[in-house]
Amino acid sequence: MKKKEISPIDVLMLIPGVGFILLFIGSSIFLTFVQSFGLFSITGKSLFTLENWKAILQARESIDSLLFSLKMGVLSSIGTVVVAFPVALFFRKGGTGKGILGSIIKVPLFIPALVAAFLILNLISYHGLVNTFLMRLHLISEPFRMLNDKFGWGVVFIQIWKNLPFVLLIIMASLASIRDDTIDAARNLGAGYWSILFRIYIPLAMPGILVSMILMFIKAFGDFPICSVAGPIYPASMAQRMQIMATIYQEWDQAAVLGVMIIVTAFIVIWAYSRLAEFVKGVD
Amino acid sequence: MASTDSMAKKPLYLIQAQKMRNFYLLLMSFFMIILILWVGIPILMTVMWSLVDPKNPWSYPNLFPPSFSLAQWKYVFDYTNIGRALRTSYTLAPLSVLLSLVLSLPTSYVLGRKKIPGKKFFMLVVLLPIIMPGMVVALFLSRVFAALGFSQTFFGLVLAHTLMSMPYMIRVMTTSFQAIPQDVIDAAENLGATTFVKIRDIFLPMIRPGLLAGMIFAFTVSIEEFNLTFIIGTPTFETIPTILYSFMGYNFIRTNASVVALLMMTPNIIMLFIVERFLKSDYLAASLGKM
Prior knowledge:
The complex is a heterodimer of chains A (284) and B (291).
Chain A: H1 8-36, H2 51-58, H3 60-92, H4 98-105, H5 113-124, H6 129-136, H7 153-176, H8 180-188, H9 193-204, H10 206-221, H11 225-230, H12 238-248, H13 252-281
Helix pairs in contact in A: 1-13, 2-13, 3-7, 3-10, 5-7, 7-10, 10-13, 12-13
Chain B: H1 2-9, H2 12-50, H3 71-79, H4 82-113, H5 119-131, H6 134-148, H7 154-178, H8 182-190, H9 195-224, H10 227-233, H11 240-248, H12 254-278, H13 283-288
């Protein structure tokens, strides 16, 4: 077998792509970290200090925002996968009309997050379609508050609607790699629908499920536009709070602390995912 | 007996198969209706909101607006910056697609065809712009840009959009470079093909679907990019997403927002159907399905 070697030409060709990303993302991560400790500060003096961390960690709002963002991340990632999995199973086998259905369900993928938020907002607002409909049917006497509600169901619903096709694509790809022989064999040996679902489909699609949950969690955890449109008035999401901190209060160093908290959470989740993925697949 | 007679005419397994087929058809149509409602109703609502007649306002508890007019569309084009935002968005997107194509092509070639150490690491680095939470990158990239003198400039926006679209571009093209069988290249080399011939007759035709897919994903990423544009470009430059955000912020004007929302998503949906026709396999899933 050929030995793995990197030639100068390869390096030169990697620079425009990998180098470009490393330069800009790397420098912004670096700046976030050092600014959270008061270095490279733009408000004047640059001194190593833990004051910013103290200020953020002592504020009640920070803890509330962190918990709220975590909640949004977890609920959105679980919710999307729970909705997407049955749909993916349905699309596993081709059939009449599935081509066009597949296109229709992919529409939200190409609808920008803000537009998606707006589309769903028309449905679930206080006097929106859903409430009007339920009132007409006399199922409820008072409209539900689903938008800007304290819990954040509106945000979760928008995240699910917008990201369903994205997760669907990933899960469908991993379901497509399951061979029909495996399922026929299981059926021959007397497996019912449920045991096929829990012993074959879910375990074999697990890598895809995990990746999509991770990507969803990070998206929903660091979300700014959807939370600011449909989220509760208090607490703000982490990204919202960071943006307000930086652009309105001009407290860039404290915003950097929040930024570090978001980055670290994202990386902890990715690390946990890679461990889980090894556990599921076995180390290769 | 009558029942045995009918059974003799039609065996049980055929009846069962027929029942199964009917059940499947029922399930299928039920599912189809749910799907169409799931995607269709939100879009239909927006279309109706954009056509509300200002003389006959649509208010609770009417399920439909009492009359339709194009007044809202006229208003948005006459009195807001939407025209300029559309121009900015649609010049920004092709430029950033082009730049990210030029930057990604060599990198994807190396990642797709060469055996190099640390490939996994590079593939992960490439994903960083998607993995990193958008607002963090936006805020602190704006500091980097401010130091370099790029903030509030068009060039800075092009760079930012390029950065966000590159993960899709590189991942998708790496996958299509990987898919070229080595035999074909070896055979061509054996027959004396020069590098130019190899590029023209093997690489270009074989990566064309991936190239197209990557470009279309990059284009939609650029059209819908919000965080970076909002921080780096506002208030000098307005794109469609930032103008929509301004309609949904403190002064929420639902009718104006509907018009902008429709302007923003219609080209994207048309593009989706073009992609569907072009591509047999799902490039996005193939390239993002594993980290």
